[in-house]
Structure formats: structure tokens, C-alpha cells
Amino acid sequence: MRNWFRGPSFGFRVSGPDLRLFMGLPRLALALFLGCLTSYGDEALSKATIIVYNSSFPGSRSLAEYYASKRAIPKDQVVGLDCPNIEDIERDDYDRTIVEPLRKTFSKNQWWTLSTGGDGQQNVDFNRIRFVALIRGVPLKIRFKAVYEGNRPDPTSRVGLSNEKAVDSELATFGFFRRQISGPFNNPYYRSFKSASETDPRLMFVARLDGPDVADVRQMIDDSITAERTGLWGWTYVDARGVRDQAHKLADDWLFHIVDKSFQAGRPAILDRHDALFPAGYPMTDAILYFGWYSDKPAGMFLDKNVRFRPGAIAVHIHSLSGATLRKPESNWVGPLIRHGAAATLGNVYEPFLELTPALDVFHDRLLTGMTFAESAYASLPCVSWMTTIVGDPLYRPFPSRAESEQSANPWETLRALFRKDRHDQAALVRDLTELGSHFPTALEVLGLVQAREHDETTALTTLETAKKAYGREPDKFRCVLDQAEILQSLGRTDRLAELIHKALDTFKATEQQEILKSYLQ
Asked: Which sign does the torsion angle of CA 315, 321, 323, 329 carry?
């Protein structure tokens, strides 16, 4: 991505607001965090959704019907289009085979109400359909077109001449009846907490169910629905770069905010600030969310085909061309993340520029409030009619609001409840996490990370040692050692760090584990 570069490595510690600040949030802000949920119920969501498939692409229709059956979307809201069977299409083909047929279908089925202004411009006065699910086979991106009637490129803007687009993002604006194709279009939903039903009726929330093959897409659908029902529980893994240059550190800031918000919400996070990605052999267990940047292709632990996210996980890696193709499991990022088990992700089909990519901290925040995947994604986008492809079930709510009677006995749920209950009392949080840790060692590891964030490193090291001994699985034990190593490295305690590493080398014998440990001695 232009103007992006890799910064120096640091450690897992993150500076910034500590837990006391989070625990002292005003009640109004807490209520907003927990209560600003989409007003849609499942039935209303289904009635507000159409499914679009490519009638000439093998398997596209059957996938559309499968998704419709899973989400109870009416059959007359499943639309077949005869599109080219390629991912990148010409602008004229987009108009002729996608947007114009869809506008006619909306009018024919009376899904929207149109009026014509004095200038001849058509306006959408009412729109019953707010979500559009594109199915594998619908083209992914639109090529550059030099001359287009009604288009006025801005040669003074670094983005004003670009008119290659993601089909999803361009379709989001088809209710605006625009002829301007060059440059992005300001998103009226940016940073919104409203439901899709409450925003500009011209804006469509377009996402796609797409991936390397049909089996991947079916798995994305199934995992999303299962996670909604059973809950999505585990760790959030965040891979920052440690960038210091103010002109390039925006992405790192997003990721640091995600870590802060994760602890605030009782959904703990692991932060890596090393220059490289999480290395091969890193114990990324129970991963439900992953956010990272900036590599042109999977590296480190993502080269291991056995690495799997939890079912229903959402994973995003920012790169200029992260979503340039979705049909190759080894190319760019979207395909590989889906192949590793992610149910949803975001990608860029062409160069978007840093400030016009999804603001990942906003995306993460809206997910936690219970908004749908599509609403969360569009709330994070400063612009539409641009380069972002939104891949996943648009109706997926990974973190729906649940009544207390519906909450499970899952220890991750208990952990989250402790952060809510003890928000204003850090001593109580320490006590309750310790008690939970007697039968759920993850609570002890979380406590150690909280103590490190509170700059109580000595206590954190002891707590993490207790967590390591309590864990039964080797990968979890190994991660506790790495947590300790990061703390010692950040403190510059080289003698103690060397002692820790030499002891760990006698315990964790796998080649990749040995390489990770030895890196702390270099």
C-alpha cells in the first residue's frame, strides 16, 4: 500500500489508556456500548435482503438457494443475473449485466419507491431492501475506463482519476443513480451506530459470499449461523508493526485501539508489535478475531495449513491487494484467511490508500455492539464506490446481545461478565479472575496481561507462570512463556530473559518453537 512501511519491533506491551480508565467509563458511554444494537430481528433482516447470483457460473445458483434456505430469505428475493464468468470486468459489462438489471428488478418488484426531481435526477424515497448478498460467481472488480459519459475526473486529486472499483462497493451506491465513476464517494453511514433501516435509503449494504471454492462458502454460511447460536468465544489476535512515523502509523493506531477495546469488553487480546507477522509455530489457539498488516501474502504461522480459526471467526489483514482475487487459496489474503477457517473478512481489490481503507477499530467496535457484519463493515468505511470488498454473510452477528437468561455457562462468558461486573473495582477484578482461573487457566493468563498493562510487571510474571503450570495444552503453556518473554524484553531485563528462554528451550522441542525462543537471545 502506498506510503506504508514496516516499523521497528517492540513487544506485546501497549502504552495508552490503562484498565482504570476503562473501568471508569461514564455509565452513558457503557450503555451506548451495550445498547446501541441494530433494531432488526432475524425475520426483518431476511425480508430486507436480496441474494444475487450469476446464472452462467457453475454452482452460483445452488449456493444462493442454500444461503436463502439458511437465512429464510423469500424465494422471490433470489435474483439471477447473466454476468461474465471472470473476477474483473469492464465498466460497460458492469452497467449492462449487473447494475441496470438490478435497478429494473427493484422497480418491478416494488422494493423501492422512486421520484424524479426537477433536474431529472431519480431519487429513492423508500427502500425495503437494505442488504445485498452477492454469491460466488458474481464478478469481483471493475476495470479502469478512460472515457465514460457524465464522469468528471479530478486531476488535482491523487484519487480523483481512479475509476477501477470493487463491485460490492460500487453497488452500494446504485441507489444514487450516479454517472460519476472516478474517485470515491463519501459514505453517509461512516461511524454510524444506526441500523441499516434507519439510514439513507439510497445506500445498499452489499457483501459477498465468496471464496476459493463452493465448500469454503458453504462453511462460511454454516459457521456464521452456528456462532450466532452458540456464541463466539476465544482470543483476539492483533499483529501491529510498531510504526512511529506519524504519516504512516494510522493502521497501528487502529490496532492498538482494538486491543484497548478488547480488554474493556472482556474479550481479551494478544498484541504482537514485532516487525514480522506472528511467526511460524506461534500458538494462536482459540482465535475468534484476527487483525493485522502489512504483508503482501501470508507468512509466518499462516503458512501452516493446520492453523485454524474458531468457527465463525472474522479475520482481516490490510494490504493494498489483499482481495485482488478470492478464488485462489494461496494468493493475496482473503482466500487464504477463508481457507484457514475465517467466516468473514475484508479486502482491497485495487490500491485504496491507507486513509480510505476500513477503519479497523470502528469495524471491531461495531461488531462488539451487536451490529451485523455488513453494518459494522460499512460503518468503518469513510468512502464507498471504492476498493473494499466485504466478504461474508452480511446478516452475520458474531456478538448478538443476549438476555441474561440466554447466557451460557461457557467460561469465556463468565470472564466477560467479570469485566462488566468489576469495571469500577480493579481489586475485585483481580480477585474474581484469580478465582475463575482455578478451573479456567485462560483467566490467569488474561490477568497477567492486565497486570502488565497496569505496569505491574513483577506480579504479571508470577501470574503468567501460574497460568503456564495450570494449562493442560502445550500451545497455551508456550504462549505464556512468550508473554513473559515480551515483558522481560520490554523491561530490558536481559539476564532474567535469558534464564527464561534457556529453561523453555529444554521444554519446548519443536523446531519452530526453538526458533521463536532463540530469537529472544539474538
From this structure: negative
With CA atoms as reference, report the closest residue to 313 among 271, 272, 285, 293: 285
Is there a single domain that holds both residue 210 and residue 76? Answer: yes
* 8 A C-beta contact, residue 354 and residue 387: no
Identify the domain containing residue 428 by its residue range.
404-519
pLDDT at 139: 98
* Same domain (yes/no): 47, 155: yes
Rounded Cα distance between 179 and 175, Å, is 12
Section 269-292 average pLDDT: 93
Peptide bond into 294 cis (omega under 30): yes
Residues in contact with 305: Cβ distance below 8 Å, sequence separation at least 6, in sequence order: none
Type of residue found at 324 = A
Residues 58 and 158 in one domain: yes
Quote the CA–CA distance of 63 and 229 in Å, as a whole number: 22
Is the same domain home to 89 and 186? yes
What are the pLDDT digits (tens) for 390-403?
Answer: 999 999 999 998 76
Taking the C-alpha atoms of residue 85 and residue 129, their distance in angstroms, rounded to an integer, is: 26
For residue 90, give the C-alpha cell.
Answer: 469492464
Eight-state DSSP code of residue 417: H
> In which residue are the cell numbers 474483473 written?
88
Cα separation, 46 vs 31, whole angstroms: 28
First-to-last C-alpha distance (Å) of the chain: 30
pTM for the structure as a whole: 0.91
Does pLDDT of 144 surpass 70?
A: yes
| CA–CA dist 86, 318 (Å, integer) | 24
Q: What is the DSSP string of 292-340?
A: E---SS--GGGG-TT--PPTT-EEEE--TTTTS-SS-TTSSSHHHHHHT
Calculate helix-pair angle for 442-453, 474-491, nearest 10 degrees: 10
- DSSP string of 444-478? HHHHHHHHHHTT-HHHHHHHHHHHHHH--SHHHHH
Residue ending a domain, among 368, 401, 434, is: 401
CA–CA gap between residue 126 and residue 201 (Å, rounded)? 6
Task: Provide the Cα torsion 164, 165, 171, 176; round to 10°.
Answer: -60
Whether 235 is in a domain gets the answer: no
Give me the number of domains the chain comprises: 2
Do residues 342 and 348 touch, judged by C-beta distance below 8 A? Answer: no
Give dist(CA 197, CA 195) in Å, integer. 5
Contact 287, 355 (CB under 8 A): no
Spatial distance between the Cα atoms of 452 and 14, rounded to a whole number of angstroms: 9
